[in-house]
Amino acid sequence: MNLTRLGYLIGGAYSEFPDFNLNSINTHHILSKAWLLRELSKLKKGGKIDIEDKSAAILASGCAAWADDLIQLFPTIGKVRSFDIDPGHEQIANRLNASWWKVDRKFAACTADINSLDFSGPTTFSIKDVDYRDYEEQTIDFGVIINTSSEHMASDWANGIPSNKLIIVQSNDYAKSPIKKSQDLADMFSITNVKYKGGLNMLGDFTRYMVIGYR
């Protein structure tokens, strides 16, 4: 996350959008996204995953503050769409990633309940048009499904995801979480072809777990 966008989030976004939750860019969140990008990059360089021209869905993405980093690190990735149920995040996410919004809408944010989306094949959803005035329908066959907020919801969003789609999921062992190790996360989402699993100590507060792989 570059300093220009971070400054906008802390200052401009908060003053322009007073309902914006600054917790979405706290230290824990930044650490977990950096970890994801680092491990994903290692897997790609090692030839263990293929995301060339694969479109990515970022679920429960909030303001998608790290989407720009994802695209810059993997410039050959396909379309990137962030989905969040809070309509207040859509405009902020598009503003933060405006350079990619303008380039054939490489990135775009969408307001949606992720449990209503079907990832078993091409996914259909509504998106604002290029002038950000009216909605249009899009259909994209996402090859990469990312959910770094799975601890905040049931597992329904993953129903029907086929074996040819890369799943990246994070959760933690905070409070009453059923996740106590990374394998618990793999089991919960039936990720049997695991390319990476591990845990990251979050400044001594709790452990965050991540699994990257296929079903």
How would you explain this protein's 3D organization?
With 215 residues, this protein is of the alpha/beta class. The chain has one domain: 3-Layer(aba) Sandwich (Rossmann fold), CATH 3.40.50.150. The chain is 28% helix and 27% strand. It contains 6 helices and 9 strands, in the order ααβαβααβββββαββ. It has helices at residues 3-16, 27-45, 67-73, 88-96, 98-102, 182-188, and strands at 55-59, 80-84, 107-111, 123-128, 135-140, 142-147, 166-172, 193-201, 207-214. The protein has a 7-stranded mixed beta sheet, sandwiched between helices. The protein has a two-stranded antiparallel sheet with strand order 4-5. Strand 4 (123-128) and strand 5 (135-140) form a beta hairpin. The radius of gyration is 16 Å and the shape is globular. The mean pLDDT is 88.
Would you count the extended β strands for me? 9
Question: Sheet with the most strands?
Answer: 7 strands, mixed
CATH homology superfamily name:
Vaccinia Virus protein VP39
- Per CATH, the architecture is 3-Layer(aba) Sandwich
Strand order within the widest beta sheet? 3-2-1-6-7-9-8
Per DSSP, what share of the residues sits in E-state strands of 2 or more residues? 25-35%
Give the averaged pLDDT, no decimals. 88
Cα-to-Cα separation, first versus last residue: 31 Å
Tell me the structural class: alpha/beta
Which segments are poorly predicted (pLDDT under 50) over 5 or more consecutive residues?
none
Instruction: Please work out how many helical segments DSSP would assign.
Output: 6
CATH topology: Rossmann fold
| Gyration radius over CA | 16 Å
Task: Return the CATH class.
Answer: Alpha Beta
Net shape: globular
**Tally of distinct domains:** 1
Helix and strand string, N-terminal first? HHEHEHHEEEEEHEE
The residue fraction in helices comes out at 25-40%
